Amino acid sequence: MAKQEDVFKKVVSHAKEYGFIFPSSEIYDGLSAIYDYGQNGAELKNNIKQYWWKAMVQLNENIVGIDSAIFMHPTIWKASGHVDAFNDPLIDNKDSKKRFRADVLVEDYCAKIEDKENKEIEKAAKRFGDAFDKAQFEATNPKIIEYREKRAAILSRLAKSLEKEDLADVKALIEELEIADPDTGSKNWTEVRQFNLMFGTKLGASADSATDLYLRPETAQGIFVNYLNVQKTSRHKLPFGIAQIGKAFRNEIVARQFIFRMREFEQMEMQYFVPPGTELEFYEQWKKTRLNWHLALGLGEDNYRFHDHEKLAHYANAAADIEFNFPFGFKELEGIHSRTDFDLSAHEKFSGRKIQYFDPERNENYVPYVVETSVGLDRLFLAIFSNSLKDEVLEDGSERTVLSLPPALAPVKAAILPLVKKDGLPEFADKIFNDLKFDFNVFYEEKDAIGKRYRRQDAIGTPFCITVDHDSLNDNTVTIRYRDTMQQERVPVSQLRRIIDEKVNFRTLLSKI
């Protein structure tokens, strides 16, 4: 656990030191769980968005993208169920005066049980060596079986209690498990109560005439209320999808773990409209498609797993999360949900507008069913960033910190580095910079020794460093250095665009999906 905490602290520190993420309003002591993306963070974030958009919209003939407003008619949130049901179970510790999500306290308790399981498996693997059969050990070892049964029983009870809104039983479970405030050890808890997560605001020129609004807690409803407009103007037949990237806002009880859980965040969502009765088939298809999209990033197949929901949201008949192994354990990265016809039917009822599709093959009108894929952009950023950050010991005993980002996502694609600041080298390097900048985000630097400049570029994930030396003036060649291997080779300036493009073009990722 201590090692995981150290890794996470390193991630947070590196993100700030190298211009990826800053605490918002830091000179005024900041705001809780609000962050700003710095110069390198903004580039990485935009590249992640491009990868998602190209894979979702550009590669699919039957998916289009929109950008809906953050402010929406307040009845939308009544229809969607957010006014009445968008709650988290809140519990306070009477001694520490700290507030927690009751379900997260229980889930964290279960995560500790899972840590015990993993330690037992690791010990057995060391003991048996190459002869270790992990599957057989997990199926037969009494401790592992006991841990898993206990964890399953706890999570099942929690899900049932939340589904029935039996908050008294949630508190009883916390007390039975003797869960304490993680910071103070106090077990003196209040009753569990529901807390609505939506931020309220007002629209209007004066307080008397202002309309009460909400900052949207999700981007999905902007897609649903535009379904008719998009379907009619795009003339798409079912199945077809509508994609969107946008900000959402949730007044989280406990926002924590850096950018993993924030009050202002960004979502990348796609709603796929399908004929009734086919939704579960498409649900399974999108589970596979979305996992393949993540795996193409090369962060390691073992770092992903599916978690099927025991407690379904009021709109769903099937739901699963793709979980990622963050520095603080496996947590939700993306959700895939079969939302049935709940949303469109609700908006049809509350708006009084007919929201249906005429199916020429079935020769009937119906409200489409929906399969949703929803990934948190900030969580994805954290997954990629934390997994890519590595400390390496080199052959000569020295160390380097490298951010081994997928090259297509790297903030800077190539750094142009004149060996010295004289003898015409800066001018030659400047020509290369001005030529490449039309195709790639490139960086020019002439300060410090070349080794220090290499290390700085390693730390922000730059795939290529291009060094201009005195020979470059004579033979029009440069030294190109590869981030991951640190190998160097001499290449003609005329080949630079091709070499860089082969690695950083989004085709390299998209072709793997």
What this model shows, in words?
The chain has 513 residues and is α+β, with helices and mostly antiparallel strands. It folds into 3 domains: 1-70 and 216-393, 2-Layer Sandwich (BirA Bifunctional Protein, domain 2); 87-195, no CATH class; 394-510, Rossmann fold. The strands form 7 sheets. The chain has a 7-stranded mixed sheet with strand order 3-9-10-16-13-12-11, sandwiched between helices. Helix 5 (102-128) packs antiparallel against helix 7, helix 5 crosses helix 8 (167-176) and helix 7 (142-163) packs antiparallel against helix 8. The chain starts with a helix and ends with a helix.
Can you lay out the helices and strands and say which pair or pack?
Elements: H1 2-17, E1 21-23, E2 35-37, H2 39-58, E3 63-66, H3 75-79, H4 82-85, E4 87-92, E5 99-101, H5 102-128, H6 134-140, H7 142-163, H8 167-176, E6 193-196, E7 200-203, E8 211-214, H9 220-224, H10 227-234, E9 240-249, E10 264-274, H11 279-295, E11 304-308, E12 318-326, E13 329-340, H12 342-351, E14 357-359, E15 364-366, E16 369-376, H13 377-388, E17 389-393, E18 399-403, E19 414-418, H14 425-436, E20 442-444, H15 450-460, E21 464-468, H16 470-475, E22 477-482, E23 488-492, H17 496-504, H18 507-510
Parallel strand pairs: 3-9, 19-20, 19-21
Antiparallel strand pairs: 1-2, 4-5, 4-6, 7-8, 9-10, 10-16, 11-12, 12-13, 13-16, 14-15, 17-18, 21-22, 22-23
Helix pairs in contact: 2-13, 5-7, 5-8, 7-8
